Amino acid sequence: MTQDMTEGNPLKLIVRFSIPLLLGNLFQQTYNMFDAAIVGRYLGSDSLAAVGATTSVQFLVLGFCIGICTGFSIPVAQNFGARDFKSMRNFIFLGAILSAFFAAVLSISCSILSPQILNMLKTPSDIFGNAHGYILVIFLGIPFTILYNYLAGILRAVGDAKTPFVFLIISAGTNIALDLLFIIAFGWGCTGAAAATVLSQALSGILCLITVLRRHEVLRLRREDAEWNVKKFGTLLGTGIPTGLQYSITAIGSMVMQSSNNSLGSMYISAFTAGSKLKQFAMCPFDALATGVSTFASQNYGAGKFGRIRKGLWTGVLIGSMYGLAAGLILIFFGRNLSSLFVREGDGGVTDAAGRYVFFLGFFYWILGFLNTMRMTTQGLGHSGLAIFSGITEMAARCAVSFGLVPKFGFDAICICDQTAWISATLYITPTCLLCIRKLAKDAGRKNSVKPDETPAD
After folding, report:
1. With bands split at pLDDT 50, 70 and 90, how would you rate the model's confidence at 57?
2. Residue 344: DSSP 8-state
3. What is the largest CA-CA distance in the chain?
4. pTM of the full predicted structure?
5. Which among 347, 184, 176 is positioned nearest to 269, based on CA atoms?
6. pLDDT per residue over 125-144, tens digit each?
7. Is the dihedral of CA 77, 372, 335, 56 positive or negative?
8. Which of these, 434, 402, 427, lies nearest to 416 by C-alpha position?
9. Predicted confidence band at 5 (pLDDT cuts at 50, 70, 90)?
10. C-alpha distance from residue 63 to each of 4, 288, 310, 360, 381 (Å)
11. How far is Cα 396 from Cα 267, in angstroms, rounded to an integer?
12. Helix axes 142-157, 55-81, angle to 10 degrees
């Protein structure tokens, strides 16, 4: 069930690894879209706006959770590639301790501060109550979010992308069923949608835990693996914290963008929510592909095969860019019709605005093939600190548009905000990633008295 990515054709390995990730991401976004569709159609556009008003803060907090879990899995993948299984299991043990710590701190602090967070986002008073009920339940479920993402990251680090995918299918079906039960049958409103999401996430996390304990002998901890190691703690924090911050810093820009959009009124909040659901759904292949390339790079870095890293990187960029062109055309020509899935009949203004938002996004989707692949490869090579600046660049670009253009141009400025951020971040991360690979190869060459160009390309 594990997959050694240090041997064999990079294209086949990356595609085979990425397909379960892609399907899993699609299922995850599908049940997120069902959340929005059920809320919008059964509870109305104000309730959809209440859920949408929390989107950016969810991205901030949950993105940090996902980011640290991704970072904690990087040393696991590197040691798996180097065949140092004892050190790998020690990293798993120490990462579990850190994950539990962050789960407790984030869940408690965010739950207490949730009203202040919504006020900071200028959430309108007519949707504040529903927005608070929704986000409070999401924050209380942070331990389950971290449980799933940490264990799924460990499984993917050793090449098992299929198991998390299967559990996401189960989770998606559970979430949809609970949505219908809690919202329609029990009448719990927005809080019911959040409860369905948290409980389905808990189920997938528990299933991953059972799998790690029972089915993966190489991951099963021994008594000797449970030892404290300050240096390894530092390594985990050095990969986890910057990766988490990279997600969160990007989210801060999205929060500023969300706050600016919230000031335009409930109709534009609903439109932005519907358009964002389509945007996130269309981004699933980028995330899956970038994760596959990152895992490929991590394992081959552990094995010292830098030629394979380069080949895998450009393979990912090519596939991602080609997909981005196709996805962009769909958003350009069919975005408005797809946006209507989340809106009641008669809310034509919401549908028009959402369609305009994704229309402009479509022209620049191809650039995400560069941005996501380069950024996650840099993280996979252990240089999360360098990757974090791409998030800072995105944040700065979104803030510039939100503060400088939204007051004058309104929702039209919101429609160009993401693209500005993507272009700015790509201009930074592309040369950074390439220089990082070159430096690591040269350092390895000096250490082993081998020229970097002589490293095997397979």
Report:
1. confident
2. -
3. 71
4. 0.73
5. 347
6. 888 888 899 999 999 999 99
7. positive
8. 402
9. confident
10. 28, 16, 28, 25, 20
11. 26
12. 30
pLDDT band at 453 (very low <50, low <70, confident <90, very high): very low
One-letter identity of residue 429: I
Exposed, middle or buried, 346 (CB in 10 Å: 0-12/13-18/19+)? exposed
pLDDT for residue 121 is more than 60: yes
- Please list, in sequence order, all residues whose beta carbon lies within 8 angstroms of the beta carbon of residue 281, skipping any fewer than 6 positions away: 26, 29, 30, 33
**Helices within 82-229 (DSSP H only):** 85-120, 125-140, 142-157, 162-179, 189-214
Nearest-angstrom CA–CA distance, 20 and 288: 8
Kindly write down the DSSP assignment for every residue of 236-268, as one continuous string. Answer: HHHHHHHHHHHHHHHHHHHHHHHHHHHTT-HHH
Count of residues in the chain: 458
Asked whether 162 and 20 are in contact (CB, 8 A), the reply is yes
The rounded distance, in Å, linking the Cα atoms of 429 and 365 is 17
Say what percent of the chain tops pLDDT 70: 93
Distance of CA 297 to the CA centre of its chain: 18
Amino acid present at 3? Q
Count CB neighbours of 223 within 10 A.
6
DSSP assigned state of 180: I
287-325 as b/e: b if 16+ CB within 10 A:
bbbbbbbbbbbbbbbbbbbbbbbbbbbebbbebbbebbe
Establish how many alpha carbons lie within 13 A of residue 418's alpha carbon, considering only the half-sphere containing its beta carbon: 25
CA R_g for the chain? 21
Instruction: 112-117: list long-range contacts, CB under 8 Å, 24+ apart.
Output: 114/139, 117/57
Distance, in Å, from the CA atom of 156 to the CA atom of 72, rounded to the nearest integer, reads 12
**Helix/strand/coil percent split, the chain, to 5:** 85, 0, 15
The CA distance from 328 to 422, in Å, is 14
With a CB cutoff of 8 Å and minimum separation 6, the contacts of 265 are: 124
Q: What is the mean pLDDT of residues 377-398?
A: 88
> Which band of pLDDT confidence, cut at 50, 70 and 90, is reported for residue 37?
confident
> In the structure encoding, which two tokens stand for residue 306, read together?
């830098």
**Inter-CA distances, 262 with 100, 258, 398, 431, Å:** 34, 6, 15, 36
Alpha-carbon distance of 340 to 342, in angstroms, equals 5
- Core vs surface per residue 125-143: b (16+ CB within 10 A) or e: eebeebbbbbbbbbbbbbb
| Residues 455 and 445: beta-carbon distance below 8 Å | yes
